[in-house]
Amino acid sequence: FNAAAKEVAVEALTSQGFIVEVSDLYAMNFKATATAEDITGADMPFHYAEETKLAWQQGKLSADITEEQRKLTEAELVIFQFPIYWFSAPAILKGWFDRVLTEGFAFTPEKRYSQGIFQDKKAILSFTTGSQESMFGINGINGDVYVAIWPIQYGTLHYCGFQVLAPQISWDPAHTSQEARGNMLEAWRKRLLSWKKHHFPLLPLTALPFN
């Protein structure tokens, strides 16, 4: 279903004249762990955050990181499509955050949140759940889904300055009918056809939109 949602996004955006680049992390065999291999000619011991900042300045980050940073630099809208794993993103996507959003490129102590480097860019989390919507409500057994994604939306994306739009949540597609799955994909398509008109910006935690 996540693959289908990705295809819907590509189709909806390209139909409007946008250039779409897809990073299929699994197909790319993207390395999830942040190690010394991320820096060309790195010596041990080293401090990852400081060394990657310096490597970014000197053009010594590994090719897979620099390619993803190029895509981010050129992007107007970034969509993260994934299934929720253990109330968070899959490890490979977490590794993308860890490795690609290096200090200097994505943030500095002076450029964070509303003053962040990516304040001219928008981001959307589009994800699937393994439980029904009622289980992710404020009083649901799984707890509020917006609390679960707060670290990604606010602590990662908005930290880097992104204007974080309301998430697109596809509730439990593995256990719903084909018709229901089709309706989810159609809702996603319609939203993307008018995303510039309806931004749904990120709101304070206690007032996050549910629609």
TrEMBL record:
Q: Which UniProt keywords apply?
A: Oxidoreductase
Gene3D superfamilies per UniProt: 3.40.50.360
Query: What do the Gene Ontology cellular component annotations say?
Result: cytosol
Q: Which SUPFAM superfamilies does the protein's record reference?
A: Flavoproteins
Keyword GTP-binding applies = no
Tree of life domain = Eukaryota
- Membrane-crossing residues? none
Where's the Flavodoxin-like fold domain? 2-192
The GO terms this record gives for MF are: NAD(P)H dehydrogenase (quinone) activity
Q: Does the keyword Oxidoreductase feature in the UniProt annotation?
A: yes
For this protein, the record's InterPro entries field holds:
Flavodoxin_fold (IPR003680), Flavoprotein-like_sf (IPR029039), NAD(P)H_dehydrogenase_qn (IPR051545)
What PANTHER family does UniProt report for this protein, alphabetically?
NAD P H OXIDOREDUCTASE-RELATED (PTHR10204), NAD(P)H DEHYDROGENASE [QUINONE] 1 ISOFORM 1 (PTHR10204:SF34)
Q: Report the family membership.
A: Belongs to the NAD(P)H dehydrogenase (quinone) family.
Q: What is this protein called?
A: N-ribosyldihydronicotinamide:quinone reductase 2
